[in-house]
Design goal:
This protein is an alpha/beta fold. It has 4 domains: 3-205, 3-Layer(aba) Sandwich (Rossmann fold), CATH 3.40.50; 213-408, 3-Layer(aba) Sandwich (Rossmann fold); 412-518, Winged helix-like DNA-binding domain superfamily/Winged helix DNA-binding domain (Arc Repressor Mutant, subunit A); 544-616, DNA polymerase, domain 1, CATH 1.10.150.80. The protein is 46% helix and 12% strand. The chain has 27 helices and 17 strands. The chain has a 7-stranded parallel sheet with strand order 3-4-2-5-6-1-7, sandwiched between helices. Strand 10 (264-267), helix 12 and strand 11 form a beta-alpha-beta unit. Helix 15 (360-378) packs across helix 21 and helix 18 packs across helix 19 (437-444). Bound molecules: adenosine-5'-diphosphate (ADP) and zinc ion (ZN). Zinc ion binds next to helix 16 and helix 17. Adenosine-5'-diphosphate is lined by residues 23, 25-27, 30, 47, 49-55, 302, 304, 330-331, 573.
């Protein structure tokens, strides 16, 4: 393809972006993925949740001859996508087990007649003889394999049906294939390329930063109380997810929220599937519902306006945390992730790991991941920079949109305390017997536990010299010393401690150690956002007048959504309503310029929304 033809294609892609979908600019790597696909090349695109993966195949499918075939693992998501496309009069249909035979025949007939731009198919159907035959007769414009990590056993959502998708390479050699996933890790990525037989594919990896999500990680002091306060102060009336460790925790949290007048629903694997589907549907279709859930909740939620994700228990590692918090703010508007962590969670998770039937090497890796996560919780540095570093991405802190950047924690000198701890380890752990941090803390605190007496540790010179810190603080300090390489913990032997050479400079007073101040910021004290937060275009708060308008627009959107039996965000995202609330369009031409409003939606919805706006003036 010549450069001129490629430029012409991109111009067409842009016209569809604006005319059909109502967006002014491509997001992140969208343009590159689309250009490659339009040029007929295979692509493996790795983009975070909310990165805009759908348009990467929708636009080329509209532009290229034939229907784009989209493989997707989740029936509910297919329906949402088709509903959303229908709103823009893009010709799309899905074919899966939820259809009656009659409907299925109709859909296949539309495909065979070339009446579709997008054809969503469940993987097991796609590879049926019937379907392959149908595709041979009507070559598709492309194959999009959504949630491509489902093909990998390394991934977290392995689906055996996906394994056979590799066949497409030989069956349809001329049709470009586009594999999409939000799973970053390199091993899974390699596995995808291999199993799909697309090793030649362009790999396009977007940044995993989610700039519109702010991160806050706080020690737990009555997590449900803290949750209520967080909700009241910042998210009254908004949709959110509260993650809990156990089914009972999810039930009780939902009850508590209900009792406080919040519209809340539980969700966990112990509920029957009908109730679960029901609650998930409610969450999608109604405004302002809070779901209190276990990790069972998430796959298949593409609700764009989840304004907060709260964890009242720690997830098991940074990967899970990032995946779960990533469900906030898909629409790009400011959203919050808050985590209340505590040692009770760490104990519970450690117990789970110990009791699982996984091989010891796996358990060891899981313990390490939990420790890494705890370090992130206790850290005083930019959260975003650390999370992204964990995924191998460099980020120059401060981000200006996490608790540590917005409200730098008070530090206190802890060199002497560190010296006490290290010398206590040196004294207690000798002769091949190592003790863990809890035991060392007991010695420092002068506690004559059975174990302390058993080993005569009440006679050590360090016994009882550490009254300045509480036990939890000694343990936090120990973790800092371990992560800083001053000592090592033998996880296979109950966390037995051993000093390293790096402990010496601290013991000799040549290196100082600081730790996080105990006191949390006073209640009610609000952090000022740094100017750097502005680079994320976080929205300014609405004025009272704008906010009243926004509510009316929301109500109108709900009304229209109900009449068509679709979720409200299929009509318009909050982004569009916010733009309307701030600067009400005067007429249909104005309306068509709003973000997220393409030609069809302008025609369809200008009138009802303009009517609402006129009433408010
Ligand atoms: P993903 O599947 O990667 O999580 P989606 O395809 O669902 O992401 O898109 C995320 C959100 O971003 C959607 O709400 C979509 O409307 C919006 N979006 C996608 N592309 C653009 C764009 N170029 N400009 C503005 N918004 C976009
Ligand atoms: Zn930060």
């Amino acid at each position: 393809m010549t450069a001129g033809a490629a430029a012409a294609d991109l111009k067409k892609a842009r016209d569809i972006l604006r005319g059909t979908f109502g967006h002014e600019n491509f997001l992140g790597e969208q343009e590159r993925v689309i250009a490659e696909t339009l040029a007929g090349r295979d692509v493996l695109a790795v983009m975070p949740t909310g990165g805009g993966k759908s348009l990467c195949y929708q636009i080329p499918a509209i532009l290229r001859a034939g229907a784009g075939v989209v493989v997707s693992p989740l029936i509910a998501l297919m329906k949402d996508q088709v509903d959303a496309l229908a709103q823009n009069e893009v010709r799309a249909a899905y074919w899966n087990s939820s259809l009656t035979q009659k409907k299925a025949d109709e859909v296949c007939a539309r495909f065979a007649n070339g009446e579709l731009d997008l054809f969503y198919v469940a993987p097991e159907r796609l590879l049926s003889d019937f379907c392959l035959q149908m595709l041979r007769k009507n070559p598709p414009s492309l194959f999009a394999i959504d949630e491509a990590h489902c093909i990998s056993q390394w991934g977290h959502d392995f689906r055996p049906d996906y394994l056979h998708l590799g066949k497409l390479a030989a069956e349809f050699p001329g049709v470009p294939r586009l594999a999409l996933t939000a799973t970053a890790d390199a091993r899974t990525r390699e596995d995808i390329a291999e199993k799909l037989k697309m090793k030649q594919a362009r790999e396009i990896v977007a940044s995993f930063d989610r700039p519109n999500i702010s991160y806050e990680i706080r020690p737990k002091r009555g997590a449900r109380e803290q949750l209520m306060q967080f909700y009241r102060e910042k998210h009254e009336g908004e949709s959110g997810i509260v993650y809990c460790l156990t089914r009972r925790g999810a039930e009780e949290t939902a009850e508590r929220l209900e009792k406080e007048g919040v519209r809340a629903l539980p969700y966990h694997a112990g509920m029957d599937s009908k109730t679960r589907a029901d609650y998930q549907e409610k969450f999608k279709r109604e405004e302002g519902i809070v779901i209190a859930a276990t990790v069972a909740f998430g796959m298949g939620i593409d609700k764009p306006d989840v304004r907060f994700v709260a964890h009242i228990n720690m997830p098991k590692n940074i990967e899970s945390y990032y995946q779960e918090t990533g469900r906030a703010g898909r629409d790009g508007l400011a959203s919050e992730a808050v985590l209340f962590y505590g040692m009770d969670d760490v104990r519970a998770l450690r117990k789970w790991i110990s009791e699982s039937r996984a091989p010891e090497t796996v358990k060891k890796a899981e313990r390490k991941k939990l420790d890494d996560f705890l370090l992130l919780c206790e850290s005083t540095q930019c959260r975003r920079a650390q999370i992204l570093a964990h995924f191998g991405e460099e980020y120059s802190a401060p981000c200006g949109n996490c608790d540590n950047c917005l409200n730098p924690p008070q530090m206190r000198e802890a060199t002497v305390a560190a010296q006490k701890f290290l010398s206590c380890v040196a004294r207690a752990c000798r002769g091949g017997r190592n003790f863990n941090a809890a035991h060392i803390a007991d010695i420092l605190l002068g506690k004559e536990t059975e174990r302390v007496n058993q080993f005569g540790h009440e006679k050590l010179s360090t016994f009882g010299i550490g009254g300045e810190l509480r036990k939890a603080e000694w343990l936090a300090l120990a973790r800092r010393l371990i992560s800083g390489g001053k000592m090592e913990a033998d996880e296979e032997r109950f966390g037995g401690l051993k000093l390293t050479a790096a402990a010496k400079p601290v013991l000799r007073g040549e290196e100082t150690i600081a730790m996080r101040e105990r006191a949390a910021p006073a209640k009610g004290e609000k952090a000022e956002r740094k100017p750097s937060a502005q680079k994320y275009k976080l929205q300014e708060p609405l004025t009272a007048e704008e906010s009243a308008r926004f509510e009316l627009l929301r109500a109108e959107r709900s009304r229209l959504a109900q009449a068509q039996n679709v979720p409200p965000y299929v009509i318009f995202h909050d982004t569009t309503l916010l733009a309307m609330a701030r600067e009400p369009p005067a007429d249909e031409a104005d309306f068509a310029q709003l973000p997220g409003v393409g030609a069809v939606k302008a025609k369809r919805y200008a009138r009802p929304f303009l009517r609402v706006l006129r009433k408010t003036n």
